[in-house]
Amino acid sequence: MSDPVDPSASAPATGHEQKRPLRILIGADTFAPDVNGAARFAERLAAGMVARGHEVHIVAPAASRRHGTWTERHEGELMTAHRLRSWRWYPHDWLRFALPWDIKRHSARILDEVKPDVVHSQSHLVTGFGLSYEAEKRGIRIVATNHLMPENMLEFTLIPKRLQNRLISWAWKTAKKTLSRAEAVTTPTQKAADFLEKYTGLTGVRAISCGIDAHMYTPDFTPRTANRIVFVGRVTGEKQIDVLIKAVSKLDPALDATLEIVGGGDQRKNLENLVQQLGLGDRVTFTGYVDDHELRAAYTRSTVLAMPSIAELQSIVTMEAMASGLPVVAANAMALPHLVHDGENGYLFEPGDADELAARLTDIFTMPEEQLVAMKRESLRLIEAHDIQRTLSTFESLYRGEAVTTTYAADDSDEPEVAASAPSER
């Protein structure tokens, strides 16, 4: 780990010198080295803001028993991390959390030391709850982004099924209480924004893409020599990877299709058993977690991304695959239809339907090469709307209190049109 430095010493990026650099505090319940969409977004957001000349502080649970304040490097950029004492949640394969009753005390101390211009909460649960409560008391601007559906948390609890509906209702009420403290509430897609408004009663939730740096990914337009399916993500129940494995078992053996599952999670052993039961041991590979270089290589060598998940608020993985020039076969659920335009850059299938998923994969593997190339190019065209720099500019305006209007094109391409006006009053 690097010696402590002053993150504010970074030079501002070109085009941002005219405004005073901000001191930004990002609070998250999951952050690197955690591997999930929310953690990756928070990491990229933090690094992007440092690259623009802002001073960034991270408040998140410690990744081990070691806790305290130090400098960390993420995405090549230095930032100050305030790592809270954390505890392992054993129903989950890696999750660590800070104790709720400690959060207000730690939040008060950190906010008084850092004196940020803005607090950006990435979770309405533990860390975000404490930071938002204390920031409101101090008159600090609050921006909140929601990445979580309470229903998905229940998979990692030991709570009986009969009590889960009550817990979900309580969780949404808690979300409303915390998110109501924010001047701006965001979520990655319009679908997710509508969902959040429906279950919390909030209004004016903004849809802002998580964004990716598409230039980091490498499309391959050479004629395919194999039929390779890739899945990337947490190996957990809501991802419905079992549906994908069953679909692979239904493919014509003459296609000689293989499946690479990139990621780790609590369902890996169960899925490995399913693979053996279906006689797919020579066609399905579990790689576990990989580094960024290996991940990008996995996309490039694949023919298609399969995303059977029913719980994607945006799906950074799908965006990364599109930036790699892959067609995508995805469940017609949550935010995936915003990214996958049926028949254009891939296909949608009825969630949970292994037969339809197999049929759509077969369509990809048997289509003429020129049609496959057209789908690959359409993925690249659609992903242009999710440029990380556009996302950073939007959040930068929100941090400054500037009014930001984000709308979506009528074809659901998720291309935001952003207009900033004079600073609004808190």
UniProtKB/TrEMBL annotation:
* Gene3D superfamilies, per the entry: Glycogen Phosphorylase B (3.40.50.2000)
GO MF, any single term = glycosyltransferase activity
Record bears the keyword NAD: no
Instruction: Mark the transmembrane ranges.
Output: none
One of its GO biological process terms is:
carbohydrate derivative biosynthetic process
* Location of the Glycosyl transferase family domain: 225-371
Q: Does the keyword field hold Thylakoid?
A: no
Keyword tags? Glycosyltransferase, Transferase
Q: Where is the Glycosyltransferase subfamily 4-like N-terminal domain?
A: 35-214
Q: Could you tell me the superkingdom of the organism this chain comes from?
A: Bacteria
Q: Which Pfam family name is an example for this entry?
A: Glyco_transf_4
State the InterPro entries in the record.
Glyco_trans_1, Glyco_trans_4-like_N, Glycosyltransferase_grp1
User: Per its record, how is this protein called by name?
Assistant: D-inositol 3-phosphate glycosyltransferase
Give the species this sequence originates from. Okibacterium fritillariae
* Top-level taxonomy: Bacteria, Bacillati, Actinomycetota, Actinomycetes, Micrococcales
